[in-house]
Amino acid sequence: xxxxxxxxxxxxxxxxxxxxxxxxxxxxxxxxxxxxxxxxxxxxxxxxxxxxxxxxxxxxxxxxxxxxxxxxxxxxxxxxxxxxxxxxxxxxxxxxxxxxxxxxxxxxxxxxxxxxxxxxxxxxxxxxxxxxxxxxxxxxxxxxxxxxxxxxxxxxxxxxxxxxxxxxxxxxxxxxxxxxxxxxxxxxxxxxxxxxxxxxxxxxxxxxxxxxxxxxxxxxx
Length: 221
Description:
Elements: H1 13-17, H2 30-36, E1 64-72, E2 83-87, E3 113-117, E4 123-129, E5 134-135, E6 143-144, E7 147-153, E8 160-166, H3 177-180, H4 185-189, E9 194-195, E10 206-209, E11 212-213
Parallel strand pairs: 1-10, 1-11
Antiparallel strand pairs: 1-4, 2-3, 2-7, 5-6, 7-8, 9-10
């Protein structure tokens, strides 16, 4: 099984948000939704949207990294013009969000959010800071492995998939119920980026490669 179940009791918030009733099939057809929902194009993207290290007046703290890869369909074909959004914690493991109040320092030069469009060959590229692990109170001594959230949009907000990218060799993998909620070991491994020396830039940033394969990369419920 590639995708996590809607309810995974070890991940406690799923107990509250998992559907308790059968789905309701809307009468509004998908074509009507696509005609009225927002659409995206190059004009909405800023020059620094894909570089999370240059969105402020100063340099953020932490290990600079490059994350790149492709968005592919189920047959391995590139999906060009796909809007990707990312959000993440800073190097200390804290989000720039009012809801995150755990005692780790905020970074005034790191907002932790970015976006880009895939190119004609389905490639994306982000420059960012490697996020830190953080506590999340799901269970005793619960810590999330370092990760970056990805949203993959279709032609409208109603066509949105959300997943997480992890880093190789993280010792927290066995203890994290979100990561472990994906039943198949090989599917879990598809959420882990690969260190890539060819992407790494000398004296500047380490590189990671991670492809998103629609229908194959585990997505959140």
